[in-house]
Amino acid sequence: MNNQNIISIEGLKKHFLTSGGRFTAINGMDLNIVSAEFTGIVGPSGSGKTTLLNIIGSLDSPSEGKVVVLGKSIGELNVKQAALLRRSQLGFIFQSYNLLPVYTVFENVEFPLLLMNLTDNQRKKMVMDSLEWLGLTDKVKSKPSQLSGGESQRVAIARAMVKKPQIILADEPTANLDAANSHNIIKTMVKLNEEFGTTFIFATHDDKVIGYLKRKIILLDGKIASDETIRK
């Protein structure tokens, strides 16, 4: 599937109504992303990074233009179809981890699998494989409150990876981590990208993340200011 566009964006605009009138978060964008990229959407707060990630992830829809993700036109999906796309093909990693505090690490990672047609044994194997891969098997029964920030983010990555999605969208995934944990987390994502061919798209302005990117797309005022492939 390499070298095949899995995300195609043409003429994308996104408007929001605010108390001061209409705010344009994305103002005319064309962008293609191919399978197995490790791409960062970089720019200051308010540049449109999170809005773009939300549209790619079918959490929001375009005001104008066309966004096609894995063959699905985001603007044409109904609520059920968008949920199915997220459930089957997309993984999400957030800066706030979004772990469910009353559930164990195992249960948090298992959560995306509960809506899939899997047996208990299949789910257990997938969860344990994901936790083992991220070095978390000793935390299976722990609650989020018992984890460090780095461990919590690794659980969030395990949850995003457990169903082996084609695309993982990561919104400021290192924002709450110190430098050492940030580097460890990004190295883990690089390894996932290289071993499984998972496409990673980050929204970030963290220099630690930017140093690992293979492609850097800079947004300013809702437009692409530069698009650079980084040779390692």
Tell me the span between the first and last alpha carbons. 22 Å
Order of helices and strands: EEEEHEEHEHHHEHEHEE
Please state the average pLDDT score.
94
Q: Provide the spatial order of strands within the biggest beta sheet.
A: 7-8-9-4-10-11
- How many strand units? 11
The level-1 CATH class: Alpha Beta
Which term fits the overall shape?
globular
- What CATH calls the topology is Rossmann fold
Per DSSP, what share of the residues sits in E-state strands of 2 or more residues? Answer: 25-35%
CATH superfamily: P-loop containing nucleotide triphosphate hydrolases
Folded structure, characterized:
With 232 residues, the protein is α/β, with parallel strands linked by helices. The chain has a single domain, classed as P-loop containing nucleotide triphosphate hydrolases (Rossmann fold, 3-Layer(aba) Sandwich), CATH 3.40.50. The chain has 7 helices and 11 strands. The strands form 2 sheets. Strands 7-8-9-4-10-11 form a 6-stranded mixed beta sheet, with helices on both faces. Strands 1, 2, 3, 5 and 6 form a 5-stranded antiparallel beta sheet that branches. The mean pLDDT is 94.
